[in-house]
Design a protein that fits this description.
It is a single chain. The chain has one helix spanning about 30-40; strands at about 45, 50, 55-60, 65-70. β3 and β4 (about 65-70) form a beta hairpin. It contains one helix and four strands; from the N terminus they run αββββ. It is α+β, with helices and mostly antiparallel strands and about 70 residues long. The strands form two sheets. Strands 1-2 form a two-stranded antiparallel sheet.
């Protein structure tokens, strides 16, 4: 039998890319916490409640914090 199940992915608010755990081969998790934890282990970050992959954020040395890259740089 094949059954539909609800799963969770962490998706970048900058570029729309979904996080994939390449080491374990996971593309979805059973809960939001698992999806977010796995993404953060792969250097994804949350800024102002939004998730960003490593390509879509940078460190602002003046403010001493991470910030989303501007759209013209992506």
């Amino acid at each position: 039998m094949i059954r539909k199940v609800d799963m969770y992915q962490c998706v970048c608010d900058g570029c729309g890319k979904a996080h994939v755990d390449e080491f374990n081969g996971y593309v979805a998790w059973t809960d939001e916490t698992g999806a977010r934890t796995s993404a953060s282990e792969d250097e994804w970050t949350q800024i102002d409640g939004k998730d960003y992959c490593p390509d879509c954020y940078e460190f602002d040395e003046k403010k001493d914090e991470y910030k989303p890259k501007s759209e013209d740089k992506q």
